[in-house]
Design brief:
The complex is a heterodimer. By secondary structure, chain A is mainly alpha-helical. Chain A contains 19 helices and no strands. Chain A has one domain. The longest helix of chain B has 28 residues, at 93-120. Chain B is α+β, with helices and mostly antiparallel strands. Chain B has one domain (1-196). Chain B has a 4-stranded antiparallel β-sheet with strand order 2-4-1-5, covered by helices on one side. A two-stranded antiparallel sheet of chain B has the order 3-6. The chains are: A mainly alpha, B alpha+beta.
Amino acid sequence: MHLKYESQLREPLVSGNKNYHQVTEDIVGPIEAKPTKLWYIGFYIAVALLMFGVYSVYREVTYGIGQWNLNKTIGWGWDITNFVWWVGIGHAGTLISAILLLFRQGWRTGVNRAAEAMTIFAVMCAGQFPIFHMGRVWMAFFVLPYPNSRGPLWVNFNSPLLWDVFAISTYFTVSLLFWYSGLIPDFATVRDRAKTKLRKRLYGTAAFGWTGSTKHWQRHESLSLVLAGLSTPLVLSVHTIVSFDFATSVIPGWHTTIFPPYFVAGAIFSGFAMVQSLMIIVRKVFNLQDYVTLGHIEAMNKVIVLTGSIVGIAYLTELFMGWYSQNKYEGYTFWYSRAYLFSPYGWSYWGMMACNVISPQIFWSRKMRRNLFVTFFMSVIVNIGMWFERFVIIVTSLYRDYLPSSWSVYYSPSTYEIGFYLGTFGLFFTCFFLFAKYFPTIAIAEIKYVLKTTGDNYKEDMSKVEQMKVDEFVHEYAH
Amino acid sequence: MAKKKFVVACFDDEDVLFPAVKKVRTAGYKIQDVYTPFPVHGLDHALGMRETSLHTAGFIYGITGTTTAISCISWIFTKDWPLNIGGKPHFALPAWIPIMFELTVLFAAVGMVLTFCYLCQLAPFVKKHHFHLRATDDLFVMAIECTDKTNVDDLKSFLSNNGAIETDVQIAEEGWWFGRYDNDEIPFQKSQIVAA
């Protein structure tokens, strides 16, 4: 019946001899159980961080951008660094759900739901930074093109910063729709098992009255496929446009044509690292090791080593061009401000190199790719490295540019600048804790869909098919 | 609201379901729908459904987005408020491509999701009749509409012989109504009015 045939050589994506009902039990079970003490502790820490973030933002809104240590030369500091960092993290979800869907990568089913959720939360966090960086945040709606009483004075459609407004808001909307349309059938599963009145009511509302009708599934499949097709160029465009924020300027270190692919690769790199950090914890806490197997972890580590190496090549290309262009400003930025360890920010460049390029090479070893501790540790390292990358790009380019008289003093963030960043961590983890507890963290319907081709018990049954001659196989299976 | 009588058969394996669907249809019964916990590929064809045109709608929404972007931006920058940006042309098409692309995707995605919800009649607070609660768990539930001529017992045994693990008869309403899932009230069951 299954047109998709999977080789016996591939390891099963669902282990533990599951049948359809067990899949439901395993994934919905944690939702129906009471939250554990550990969950409460984690959740309250996240909320506390969020509260500190809210206070930091309150200070910034009330007293102005002066609450941050930005200055005339370093106009973009931690805020835009964090913005790009969060947007980058927000790329893995749609990459996993869209691009891997188009490439027919079966392993996406185990991690796509959590990755998409993470994407949405990360983009929510990212959005805070440019909005509050505006200073007069109550005028944030000025970025929207609408007929206004100021002329009408329109926004500048030729500006990459406006493209960013469109790109990020489109990306958020489309990711949210993609995620939620996938969640509807799974909410219906939770709803139909619900025992308490409140659950029936809440999940009943969330499931939109889904019945599982064949016609609805047919449309759902079409919707998912087209949304995947749309999201694939979208995910590439978003970080490309973020890179345009820099690349279309004339600042040495920013004015670079390789930025779009380099940023996209970096985004995938950090996004997958964040998925690893979260999934390693989620699979352990909710006992989902049968669905997020070592095979999944290994597949993601392969993506990490690939994209990490692409990013590494980009760093080296930049250094090469810094010399080859024989442009003294470029050369100064790349070879002094960045690559010289004892320049004021040299530490951040070498931190970036160590975290992003050198250490992920450990994943060429299969043993390391399948080691949970190493993977978790590396996923954190990679995200630190990617934060450094954005810091390096922004701050080392800005602090000393063409005119030595406007060179900046050493920039370090203020308490409330750090507080804002911590606050977005709070927002992210508050959302993620709620998601992990009350939403199906793994796409139930999609797991059931691939179960008979990749479940370990079903794979065994395929052995006899494997032995068939081609003619027999065609006779049996081609309709 | 119209209520109908259905014979409901539950299957626990899609490999049993397919031949059963074929046999039920050849026997001349009208399958109202098959409810499955996940998309079963080929089932729509087995049931004789036509392809969905949702993707065509998506394409139309997409080009609407593109034309909206290009027409709005070009009107704004060439007619309404031509802004001199570094002496560059007012009609700066290459610079508008990012926004045109984003609006294409945005319109297509939002439009398709809304169309999907409309076609499937999905919305919050919508309630529908569920023939079997395990249809979202592990059962493939086939609902066959009964006419006056249908012999229910024959049909039930016919289904059981074809692999149904459970059969029953339900009087149900097609379509949807506003309702809550914590509330068992079904609109077609009129509450008894007791005269004092």
